Amino acid sequence: FGYTSLISGVDRLEFLRVTKQYLPHLARLCLISTFLEDGIRMWFQWNEQKDYIEATWGCGYFLATCFVLLNLTGQLGGCVLILSRHFVQYACFGLFGIIALQTVAYSILWDIKFLMRNLALGGGLLLLLAESRSEGKSMFAGVPSMGESSPKQYMQLGGRVLLVLMFMTLLHFDPSFFSILQNMVGTALIILVAIGFKTKLAALTLVIWLLAINIYFNAFWAVPAYKPMHDFLKYDFFQTTSVIGGLLLVVALGPGGVSMDEKKKEW
């Protein structure tokens, strides 16, 4: 019995070591997927995107072209920097700017569902920014350290809270038993992630749930490319994949200092 327990413990430690080594890489790849897809789409739909911005805002050919070029280079360049682990903080700030720019340009500000999903995407970037922040070098060098209340830990808190906005867009308000059960379980899980209690388990459960929903409802590959629904589902699929990447960062790195899991260690 003792030997079996020892082997089980060794296997568990090996699994945790491998997970800690590779999971952050998978999380970053998922997180930047929507920016990568959108940047590539800007290249292949250059004229369509330019014409849309020019017609919607009446800004003229030059500014519309600059908008598309900025989105293309900003997103693809940011993805390359993040994957190569060079200037990650600058890349994150650049992608934050892209999110803000697109929110205004495509009138997402007035669509609550898309706005909440964009905020959730920003939460994933905030977690990536916290993950890339080294212990020795602080981008808030002028701010005095306050122990547990460091900027990095507040970034993790803000990232967790913003991430759960994605799941609020998935709640269905109808009287069926399955919808009520799904809403209750989903609400409980997003609260656990937001407050940082049993965070890794709750985040992993949300990853599995969101992955299943994403594959089932956003199967853009099953819709012919010439149909408008194809692009809509493709956009939704990769944006959801990016939120999955943010949750995987929570699974890999934990909730941070501003969480109930961390406070339990002091009790």
TrEMBL record:
The organism's taxonomic lineage, starting at the top: Eukaryota, Metazoa, Chordata, Craniata, Vertebrata
Location(s) in or outside the cell: Endoplasmic reticulum membrane
Keywords associated with the record: Endoplasmic reticulum, Membrane, Protein transport, Transmembrane, Transmembrane helix, Transport
Membrane topology of this protein: Multi-pass membrane protein
Primary location recorded for the protein, binned into one broad class: endoplasmic reticulum
GO cellular component, as recorded: endoplasmic reticulum membrane; endoplasmic reticulum-Golgi intermediate compartment
Source species, domain of life: Eukaryota
Segments traversing the membrane: 61-83, 90-109, 177-197, 204-225, 237-258
GO biological process, alphabetically ordered: Golgi organization; protein transport
Organism: Oncorhynchus mykiss
UniProt-listed InterPro entries: Surf1/Surf4, Surf4
Protein name as catalogued: Surfeit locus protein 4
Family: Belongs to the SURF4 family.
